[in-house]
Amino acid sequence: VGEGICLKKMIALLAIALVSSVAFVFAGKGLSAGKPSRPSITVDGKSVAVFQGSYCWKGPFGGQCVDMAPPPDIIEFHGAAPAKVSPGAVLSIKFKKKPVAGSVRANLWPDDKQPKNVNLDNDRLIAPKEPGIYVYDIQASWDEGSASFVIGIEVSEER
User: Fold this and answer.
1) Lower CB count within 10 Å: N or C terminus of the chain?
2) Rounded distance, CA 79 to CA 74, Å?
3) Average pLDDT over residues 123-146
4) What region does 113 belong to: left with phi over 0, alpha with psi -120 to 50, or beta?
5) Strand pairing partners for 132?
């Protein structure tokens, strides 16, 4: 009888250790919250650098919200050269996981730092016709949360 009780205790301890180890591995892999994957943005077949903006995201074991600097500051921080595009070029936005219908939107961040809403056409952003450097944030929502992504473009006749 004594050996049976000892064996049951050992099995219970092993089960607790196994469950704890699995939980630790999942937490280490970021499954507690995770974060959204960046979209692919292309223009004329070339990739545009995309940077993570603010987001709120939940995973199987919890969630988190991360506030980032304003989009122009994110571009400056990364020291990223803006993607050179032609006036009126079409930037195609593709997400690995499809966002909630109607949730994708964009804002233009002019020098005065007050964002202005920009119309998207089927997840496509049309570059301005006037030459200059432009910073945008693209926002989307999923069942797991919402996120913004930042890009910079330079509209120029010469590419």
Assistant:
1) N
2) 9
3) 96
4) left
5) 155
